[in-house]
Amino acid sequence: MQRKRGLEIGRPLGSRLLVHGSWFPAGALLVAHLTISAYGGHDLFGSVLLSIATTLVFFVCVAFKEVAQALVARLVRAPFSDVTLYVFGGIARSSREATRPIQDLVVAAAGPAASGVLGFIALTTSHGLRGIPGDVMWTIGVANIALAATNLLPGSPLDGGRAVAAILTGRTRNRPAAEITAARAGQLLGALAVIAGAVVIALTHSSTTGVAIGIWLVVGGIIVAVCASRERRAAVALKRIGGATAGEWAKPFAGRVTLDGALPSSGTFAVADSGRLAGVASGRSGESVRAAMVPWTSDIAVRSTEPVTRALGRLARGSVVVVLDENGTVRGVLDPSMVEERL
């Protein structure tokens, strides 16, 4: 079955919204940071509560940023399958490539714009409030401005990196090469953030706030560098694929099984029910066919002449893709293990 990329929290505008596991330790770090910095003047219990509340509101702001991008993507008819939330924002995944680079550029710009607007509103509102409400609104405003500024940096997976990739694609018409360049820039930014964080910690080791800022730079840099490395590997793989078709990548089923049986071995099997294809089962030996089966629908099928990139887009949304010839006859199947073997 498909490997989980995060905890699903909803489907705004039809796109899955996932929370990456790194959010939980990052959220705990943010709570600790706010407790000793923004709310350090309050008693410990009160500062912890305020920090937790602020972190939750900031999470909502990050989610709002990504929903705004999903809305803009829908308005400009850009492909948008789902998005995984990280502490710096989100990484969107598409079921197909955008037909025009301007679509990617507009969607990328929408993210920092949404965070900037939220930050401006929060900061403006904080001037009219006193005490704890004013402190919370000011902190939320600063956090959103910082989020917008961070995402303007020109390296993937940040929105600035997406914009760079879109601009380079428009100039060179070579999307994989553009995405590799943006990902390399993201790796460099991540490494520089880690180095800067280490320097800040070394120079301000006697200051709790300084050490907290340094830790943030190190953690954020690591997350960005790791995500950029993954995006670079994906872009390199896409470049190597070239003009391959789904039919060239498809492999025969490991065999045929009945609906009420068990998988005889590990692999991907055609599930027969009364002489027709009822679905596809992929799993371990001895696993129930019904539990492992993906029901047959046109959503899991592609034509053998279609680009393999389109088949991989379908595969990103499920666990298998069935490849059909021009007559509608099953020619083979693609699953994650087959793709890994090919790559």
Describe this structure in words.
This protein has 343 residues and is of the alpha/beta class. The chain folds into two domains: 235 residues, no CATH class; 96 residues, CBS-domain (Roll). The chain contains eleven helices and eleven strands. The protein has a four-stranded mixed β-sheet with strand order 1-2-3-4, with helices on one face. Strands 5-6-7-8 form a four-stranded mixed β-sheet. A three-stranded mixed β-sheet has the order 9-10-11. The two termini are 19 Å apart. The relative contact order is 0.09. The mean pLDDT is 85.
Outline the fold blueprint.
Blueprint: E1 7-10, E2 16-19, H1 23-36, H2 44-75, E3 82-86, E4 89-93, H3 101-126, H4 131-151, H5 159-172, H6 175-203, H7 208-241, H8 246-249, E5 256-258, E6 267-273, E7 276-283, H9 289-292, E8 293-295, E9 301-303, H10 308-316, E10 321-324, E11 330-334, H11 336-342
Parallel strand pairs: 2-3, 5-6, 9-10
Antiparallel strand pairs: 1-2, 3-4, 6-7, 7-8, 10-11
Helix pairs in contact: 1-2, 1-7, 2-3, 2-4, 3-4, 3-5, 5-6, 6-7
